[in-house]
Structure formats: structure tokens, C-alpha cells
Amino acid sequence: MKVRNTLMFVLVSFTLILSACGGGQAATEAPAAPAAPQDTAAPTEPAPETSAERKVVTLIWTQEFDTLNPLYTNMWFVSVLYPVYMCQAWWYDENNDPLPNLVTEIPSTENGDISEDGRTITLKLRDDIVWSDGTPITSADFKFTYDMILADSNAVSSRSPYDLIESLETPDERTVVATFSKPYAPWLSSLFAGSAGISIIPAHVLQPVFEAEGTIDTAEWNKAPTVGCGPFVFEEWQSGSFARFVANDNFWLGRPKLDELFFRFVPDDASMIAALVAGDGDVGTFFAYSDLPQLEEAGITIMNSFSGFNEGWYINMHPEKGNPALKDVKVRQALAYAFNREKLVQDLLLGRTDVAATDYDRSPWVDPTITPYPYDPEKAKALLAEAGWADTNGDGTVDKDGVELVLKYGTTTREVRQDTQAVAQQDLAAVGIGVDLQSFDSDIFFSSYAEDGPSANFSLDIIEYSDSPQFPDPDASVWRCAEIPSDENPAGVNTTGLCDQTLEDMFVKQETQVDFAARQQTFYEITRYIFDNAYWIGLWQDPDLFGFSDRMTNVKLSGATAFFNVAEWDVTK
Amino acid sequence: MTRYIIRRLLQAIPLLFLISLVLFILMQNMGDPLATMGGRKVTRSEDRLRLARQLGLDKPIYVQYLYWLVGNDWTKSDMDGDGVAETPGVRKGVLRGDWGISLVNRQPVTKVIGERLSNTLLLMLTAEILIIVFALIIGIYSALNQYSTLDNTITAATFVFYSMPVFFFALGAMYIFSVNFKKWGLPYLPTVGMFEPSVGQTPAQVLWHMILPVSTLSFGFIAGYSRYIRSTMLEAMGQDFVRTAKAKGLPRPEIIYIHALKNAALPIVTVVALDLPFLLGGAIVTERIFGWPGMGRLFLDHVSRSDTPVVMGILMMIAIAVIAFQLIADITYAWLDPRIRYK
């Protein structure tokens, strides 16, 4: 954070000073304003149009959309809205089970929509699906979306999993056949569906743009998708202020109960909290745990949505750059025993969630016999002693062969993470492990190896964050040997630097296991293996926190596609 | 004078070039725009490599700068990743008016900035007019009534306001005029936004929403400028030409506003010209606190995503503004003081 602020200061100051050509006063750009106190930042205007005639729900969004074209965004604040203004082959319900949206049924081997070799997935489309302007949605829209994702002239945010598809065919208007080069187990969460997947885009709107300009990167539709296929349709977006989505009368599953979703963009969390408490907003999200009591007191209902994120420590196991002390499993396990994570969850997270045991907690992929390492500092000390670490010089930190056990522990500047660092430092110090705390803005922390990012250049021993690449699918690149960042592979995402052949073989195996039970068994082995080796030490299960005003009814949340039943939302007053 | 202006403009060219070069290098250390792309998930390595190639981020920094400056329509890029540059570039570069495409939303930089610039200018220009008007009134009054009770009160107040941070004034004003006024049942001011969406962007709504941010932007500057004006007016009022004007029996308003103020205004022009771009910097804080959809919030949002094209566009606009305001200040000197001749 300090680095970012300093650089911002330097940028603005340099501009002003140098362009002033040495004359006059040096400009001193003020740092970003601190968050406004909750009781001073309340938007005092009444919520827009809440008359009996029109049912309007106001969502308070702390991050403005970048683009509304699903192909071009990675922002959670946009992708969570796909069930609002776009459509996918299927959504996921509150149990994270697939719920058909554009298709008549979910493909399976039983209904013949998955080929015997597991490579071909057939989507059978409903015959009543239409875009908001009345144009039928056909397989051509799927094909067009696929072509746009793979077009080299389109800088889309992700090509996964479409770059693994050997062919995508549309034998008729109602059928889409995707053939992968080899069985692809995660298709359910990413093939035109799920939080990792994207929505289809309207060919009849964007095809002419692509033909005229050779790209849809800069299409007007990206910012104003006036033709959509969700229960609501885009109406207006005032940059920096608000966006409106109104009911789509042509939605094939029935007109939504609400007339409008109004998104107000506020500068920070404090403004969001104040708006919700003052009754000027109905929906908010990503709360700090410390704000929850105040919200609940104001009548806001907090709902947890587990979307696969589990906060934890990735241990740097890089063969050359990793700390030699951490190559010993006893030292890694000592870290887990030494940190009172139960207390952390109670104190910092107000007991609203649980300690995470594995990176797959709250999913069906975890070996049910796994429970988190308990807090046991004596056990931690014993493990350290067994590994040869003892405080021989009496400075409070254990040492071995003249080397003190001091670990570099880095994470992002998210408040709860920095608080966690402070608590961990105390707990680990109690067993003789020193910790050097470091924190970074997220786009610096997650910078690639090529950009010398601290999570990728193996300069840290403990790397804290949470990730959920393809929820609800468990496939992940972070443990794969081929993903270790290096000069040859500067974009690798394996932040642990670990290449464990046993683990690698299991991950390779699960990739092609289309059968759920077989794949689940493999993941039981994977989670047990990672847990026993303490390659990843869980901190807490990290749900998405949503708050809803007391006038809202019928709200359900899914971990994969949170607002899957937005058409059913209603208000009582 | 014309030759002077042309010379100054020519001098600005290498200066702007140098500024752009250093800023571009600094921006490379602001983070990786492809790390998470504003999301919660780390970007897949295949996508990172592809996007770096498609957006030209895989090129050495001097090549990226060259493309930003002069475009890449004279060369070809490897868009399909086969190692062969096959696709002709389409960027024209800032020298030909193409400021590039935002890495965040793929919109042209000029469009992204254009959507917000008018909002910031509205806030800034209103604040600047108020600053000058009120500073003149207060400064002249204090000078003409030196050591009066009101002058002493104003002096004390200006020191308090001048030393008060912008964010403190903003939050204090919010607390009093919005939160407490609402609590007390009085007409209260809105705290965020530019207008109430259900009412629409009417002049009345915008004016109502401008009160707090404009006050925040103005208070410190009014306090500072009024001190300058008081001081220079005091000095001017003691000059021989004022005594002569009085001896000739000129009306007092003419002596004050035509003869004394015109001479006293010279240093003020310098300060105003230097502070105008500073106000742009100050607006970053004010706009964030009051949720004003202007350049300040745009800058913060895009810096946090390491969006080099947009951030460069904003910073270069500020740089150009500084140079332009300084030139305007020089021209104003000549108008105010006939003794000044530029060659």
C-alpha cells in the first residue's frame, strides 16, 4: 500500500512539478481520502422511485463495472450479474446444483448428451428462448460467442475452456455440440455456464460490428447491452454514478417480480454501510466482519454464500528459492499447530465462518475425515525440536546451524489479512518462529513472475490469499508442475513452486474423470495428501457476504451464480 | 508577444515529451494490469500470455512507449501467438490524436476521460470562481480595515481554515450539514453523487449536490488567497501612485479597484495559475469523499487497475494544463502591468 501511495504521489507530483518547469510551488497531491465515517457518509437522498406502482431495488456497489460484455470482464461485480441481464446454458441453485436456463436438460451420460468417451457434450436448447428485443436465441449465438472468444483480434479476458474445444458444431438451431480434444471433467462449471464460464452474446447485434471493425473490443454494446437475455435488461449507465436494469418482458421464464434493479456506485465500504443503514439501499456485499453487527441492528439480513474461496497459507516449496526450513514437513505442521486459527475466526471474523482445513472446504470434493489441525503450541514446539530447531542463543527465536527461523509472510492489503498477519506473528513467536510481515496492493501482489510479483518470484515463504478458479469445479492450476513461474514460464500461477509428482499424477488423473464419483475419490486423495503434507494451511472458509434489507423477500443465493433467482426477488413495501 | 507565445509553446514540446517518458516508466511499476484484471481470481497463465501479446504488453518498455507516442500502424504484431508478426497495427499514437484504448474497459481513452472531464471542470471552475471572488472581497476588506475587529477575526479564521486538511473539512461539513441537519429536521445537503437519479440531472439538482464539494474545494484556497491579497493590497495602498491618485481627488473606489488592485493582483495571478492544476489534484480527494463522478475518481479507479493508457491520458492532460495556465499567467501579467514586455 505504501509503495502504491508513494508511486501515485510521485506520478502526480512529477507531472505538476516538471510541467511547472521549476517555477512556483511544488504540487503535493493529497493521499487518497480515508474512508468516511459511517455516520457521516450517508447518502441522504431517498431511494429512487419506490412507489407502489414500480418495485425498485437499490444495490449499493463499491466497484463500478468495467464492461458489461461477459467476454471482456474478470470483475466479480459484473459476473455476479450474469443472471440479471444475461443468460447461460444453466445456472446453479442454492445447493450449487445446475439449473437449466437455455437448455432443456443438463447433459449427462444417461440422457446421451455426453458421449461415451466423455469428449463430446451436446446442449439441447429450449425452443422459447429469445433476446430481449424478441429475436430468437439459437445455436448460432453460441457459435458466434465461441468464434468471438477465439478470434485473435478480440482481447477477451479468458478463453477457458473454449481453447480446449476441438470443434463446436451447430447441426440445427436448437443443438450445440462441443467436442473436446480429450475428456474434460470441468465442463459443467465452464461451458457457457457457471461463475468461471461466460454468457452467450447476441450475434444479430455484434456480428455486424465484427464484420465492420474486425473486432468487438470497442463495440458500443459492451457498455450498453440494450439487447440481453436475462430477466432484466440494461437501461442506463451513468459513468461514476449509477446503472439501471429494468424488467425484461420477453424473459421466457416469466417477467421478474421487480420492475427495476438500480445500482448505485459508491466510493468505499463506509459509504455502502451508511447507505444500507440509512435505508437508502437494499443490497450490499463484501462487508468487513466488523460491520456486521451494525448492519444487523439496522435490519439488514446477512447471507453467506460459499463460492469455493478458502483463505489459507500457500507454503513456498520452490526447490531452489524456497526456505530450506520449510522443506521439512514437521516445520510446516508446526506452523499449523502454532497458530490459533479458531480464536482468529472467533475474534476477527466474529465466529461467522469456520476454520478451513483444505482449499476445497464447503464442497463435495474434500475427504470427510479431514479436520483442521488443532491449536497446540506444545505440539508445535515438539515438532520443531524433532526437526532440529531450538533456541540456542536465547533470543526467543529457534535456530538451527546458526540460522534463525524467520519466515517472510506476505499477503494483500485487505484489512482482515493484515490483521491476521499481526495475530499470526504473535502466535508463531510464542513457539519461537519469527515472522517478517509484508503486504502489497493486490495487483502488485499477484503480478506475474515477469513483473517480479511477490507471490510469483518466490521471495516470500508464506503467501496468503484465497482462490476459487472454476467453482463449483475443483480443477486448479496452482499445484501443477507446469505452472511453476520461471524465466521460461513467466506467467505460471503455481505460487508454491511445488512439483510433487504424486500430487501431479492425481491432478492429471482427475482432469479426464467425467464420472463424478471416481473424480470425487481422486479429490479425497488430493485433499488428504495436501493436508498431511501441510502444503496449504487453512485459515478460514471465506464466504461472500451479502446483506439484504428487511423489505426484500424470496432471496436465495448460489455460490456459483449468486443471483440465480433474481427473477423471483420481491419487496414487501 | 506573439513570438513569445510561439516560443513558449515550442519550449513546451520537449518538456511534455520528457514528462510523458518519465511518467510512462513510472507507470510500469504500478502493478500488473493482467494480474487479476479487477477480479478475485488470478488470471490463467495462458490468458495472461495471450492478453499481453494482444494488448502489446509483452513488448519492451521502449517499444510500448513508442507505440503510445507514434502508434503502431507502421508495423505488424503477432496476435495469434505463432511467433510471426502478421497483423497490421491500428494505433495512431498520441502525436496523431490517438490516446489509445483503456486496458480496463477497451474504450478509447478520450471517451473515458471525456465522460468525466465535464463533471470535474464544472466542480473546479465553480470553485475557482468562488475562490477568487471571496478571496478578493475578504482580502480587500482586510487590507482597507487593517487591525479592525473583523480583520483580526478574519485573519484568525483564515489561519484555521488554511491549516485544515481537505478531508477533515469535507467530513466535518458532511457531519454537520447532512447527518445532523437531517437529524434536527432541517433541510439537509446530499453527501454523495451529482444528482438524484429519480429526479434526473437537472441544473437545480446538480447545484444542490455541488454545495458541499465546492465548499470543500474552496475553503482552503479562499483562506490562502485572501492573505495574499490583503498583503499585496496593503503594500499597494502605501505606494506613491496611490498617494498621487488621492491627491488628484480621484474617487476612492477608482483608487482601490483600478489603481491599487491592478498592481496588487500581479502576485495573485502567479499563485492562481500555479494552483489551478493543484486544484485538479485536490479534486481527487474531494471527488472520492463526495462520490462525484469526475476525473479524480476515474484516476483512482484506473490507477488501481494499472491502466496505463487512461492514467497517462489524465496525467498528460494535467501537464498540458499546467503549461497552458502558466502561459496564460504570463499574458495576464503583460495586461496588468504595462512595464512588462515579452520578447
Give the radius of gyration of chain A. Answer: 25 Å
Pair with the biggest interface: A-B, 92 and 103 residues
Question: How would you characterize the largest beta sheet of chain B?
Answer: 2 strands, antiparallel
Task: Output the structural class of chain B.
Answer: mainly alpha
Spatial order of the strands in the main sheet of chain B? Answer: 1-2
**Distance between the amino and carboxyl termini of chain B:** 6 Å
**Count of alpha and pi helical runs of chain A:** 15
Q: Strand share of the residues of chain B? A: under 5%
Question: Which percent bin holds the helix content of chain A?
Answer: 10-25%
Shape of chain B: flat
Low-confidence spans of chain A? 19-51
The rounded Rg of chain B comes to 25 Å
Tell me the β content of chain A: 15-25%
Order of helices and strands of chain B: HHHEEHHHHHHHH
Roughly how many Å apart are the termini of chain A? Answer: 43 Å
Residue stretches of chain B low in confidence (pLDDT < 50, at least 5 long) are none
Describe the structure.
The complex is a heterodimer of chains A (573) and B (343). Chain A has 573 residues and is an alpha+beta fold. Chain A has 15 helices and 21 strands. In chain A, the strands form 7 sheets. In chain A, strands 16-15-17-12-18 form a 5-stranded mixed beta sheet. A 4-stranded mixed beta sheet of chain A has the order 1-9-8-7. A 3-stranded antiparallel beta sheet of chain A has the order 4-6-5, covered by helices on one side. The longest helix of chain A is centred in the N-terminal third of the chain and has 18 residues, at 2-19. Residues 19-51 of chain A have low confidence and may be disordered. Chain B contains 11 helices and 2 strands, in the order H-H-H-E-E-H-H-H-H-H-H-H-H. In chain B, 69% of the residues lie in helices and 1% in strands. Chain B is mostly helical. In chain B, helix 4 packs antiparallel against helix 5 (149-162), helix 4 crosses helix 7 (203-237) and helix 6 packs across helix 7 (203-237). In chain B, strands 1-2 form a two-stranded antiparallel ribbon. Chain B starts with a helix and ends in a 7-residue tail after the last helix. Chain B has helices at residues 2-27, 45-54, 61-70, 109-144, 149-162, 166-183, 203-237, 240-247, 252-290, 295-304, 308-336, and strands spanning 76-77, 87-88. The model of chain B has no long low-confidence stretch (mean pLDDT 87). The chains are: A alpha+beta (573), B mainly alpha (343). Chains A and B meet through helix 1, strand 9 and helix 13 of A and helix 1, helix 2, helix 4, helix 6 and helix 9 of B.
